[in-house]
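Appendix C reproduces, verbatim, an entry submitted by the partner laboratory led by Prof. M.T., so that reviewers can inspect both the input and the predicted structure.
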Amino acid sequence: MFFALRELRTARWRFALITGVVLMLSVLVAGLLGLTAGLAHQSVSALRALGTDGSGFVLPADDSGAVDLDRAALTAGQVAAIGAEDPAAVPLGIARTTLDDGTETGVSVVAVGLAGPVGSVAPPAPGEVLVSDGVDDEVGSDVGVIHLGSSALAVAGHAGDLWHSHTPVVVTDLDTWHALAPRGGDATTMSVAADAVRDAVAGDAALTLVDPDGLVAALPSHRAENTSLSTMTTMLLAVTALVVGAFFAVWGMQRRRDVAVLKALGASTAAVVRDSVGQAAVVLAVGVAGGVGIAALFGLAVGGTVPFVVSAATTLVPAALLAVLGLAGAAVSLRPVLTADPNSALGAAR
């Protein structure tokens, strides 16, 4: 690494430039992953809370599979039939309604009505409501009664940081939900023990059984949003590998004569390869750590105003991916180093 470190010092501006490029790409990748996780949290955190116990969910189905949650509605007959197969099944409803915050238009909220505990969410007593953090932001955390539609409900507690399709959530019992959101149907879905209802659901073309991931996938806006952002992140990761690989390919061609001289002095090919890869590792370590750190600090600074999640999945994972892809790009560009001929280099020097 002596030669590599010496080059880093003597060509400091050249390496500062590529380190800056890697840093900016790292900011973009880590920032995009943080925003993706934040948007996903504000889109499906309520659905994920319902699926924390790993239970299955029965949804109405059509020819293309599970009906979207925005349109899903189980009839009273379907709810009764599923309940006969699994007495512990819990009907639950999901629908939009309007919260009166004193303005002319009110605030759109999503009412989740439960006939019993599902996942980590439990319903309050009839006539009461649990409010999420987003509702607190709209009406204040010290409000004792809120008005949903034409109903006044006592606030019995907080449901946590729950969102559905970027809308704050309120939790009620199922009968109160029916009064708040008469969207049709007896329930939107049912939480069930999958093994208890699998055969019954398989014999009814109007129903389908999904796992918690399938329940999340039944929200079409989340699918489109998540696919778009994941595609952009993948493209940025590929660009990072290409940029680092291209830089070290050009750098390898420029230092080919120096490498040939090293080989003529007795350095092995393995030693010069370690030297080149080590040089790339130093550039990537500084650029990636700096970029991911900046993105994490940005996320902490804007938390609460911008949907951004700072976690291991949005910092350590992208840092590892960028480092691996960057080293892979640098390794692919090692051909000028591997093919440097010490005889020609010494001959050119005479």
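Residues 174 and 236 are 45 Å apart (CA to CA). Additional entries are available on request from the coordinating office.
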